[in-house]
Specification:
single chain, alpha+beta, two-stranded antiparallel sheet, globular
């Protein structure tokens, strides 16, 4: 269930072919939602990725409220995809291998509850699939996987400036001085150590690490 958002142009365009495609939405939390959005928008079969908040107790939370803590929300993304092209089990397997599923305190340089990982399942079938993916990941790693499979709840779209942040052309101030937004995103991702840690953990199985 989406809050504070409207159907996007991409989804409206798909409305006419709904009978010809199996369009679904998966919600996952993998730390910084900018990074998860950037990763999955590259995947064949993905229609759209929206950054937002879910898993908490406060309606219509702001970024400041979520990152400050106390609302219970995760930074998350809603991935709209064509299940005929990208089956749910494949999507979840990719997600699990794109994050540090052994870290219960956040992700990479981002610490705190809002940056934890989770899979939000919308049906018993999704729950079973996600739990199997977590079990498989634990077997592959030989380590305890702390990413929970939780029931899906309300998803609140994040503020407009968070959407497609990695593509932005505006200039923002960073620790390294003013940078174009897309360059600031790359600087943040590298400085945070996301890809280095995922590569260390998953090796060649990591889907988004070059």
């Amino acid at each position: 269930m989406f809050k504070r958002t409207m159907m996007s142009a991409a989804l409206l365009a798909l409305a006419g072919v709904a009978q010809a495609a199996d369009i679904r939405t998966a919600v996952v939390a993998g730390g910084c939602f900018w990074c998860v959005e950037a990763d999955f928008e590259k995947v064949s079969g993905v229609v759209e990725v929206v950054s937002g908040y879910t898993g908490g107790t406060v309606a219509n939370p702001t970024y400041e409220q979520v990152t400050r803590g106390g609302t219970g929300h995760y930074e998350a993304v809603a991935i709209t995809y064509d299940a005929d092209v990208l089956p749910y089990d494949m999507l979840i397997a990719m997600f699990v291998r794109s994050v540090d599923v052994t870290d219960a305190g956040g992700q990479f340089c981002d610490r705190g509850d809002s940056y934890r990982t989770a899979i939000f399942a919308g049906s018993p079938a999704e729950t079973a699939t996600a739990q199997a993916a977590v079990a498989q990941a634990q077997a592959e790693l030989g380590q305890t996987v702390v990413t929970p499979v939780l029931p899906a709840g309300p998803f609140y779209m994040a503020e407009a400036y968070h959407q497609d942040y990695y593509k932005g052309d505006d200039f923002v101030l960073t620790r390294a001085g003013p940078k174009r937004q897309s360059n600031a995103y790359e600087f943040y991702r590298e400085a945070c150590g996301r890809d280095d840690r995922v590569a260390q953990l998953w090796g060649d199985a990591a889907p988004f690490v070059n």
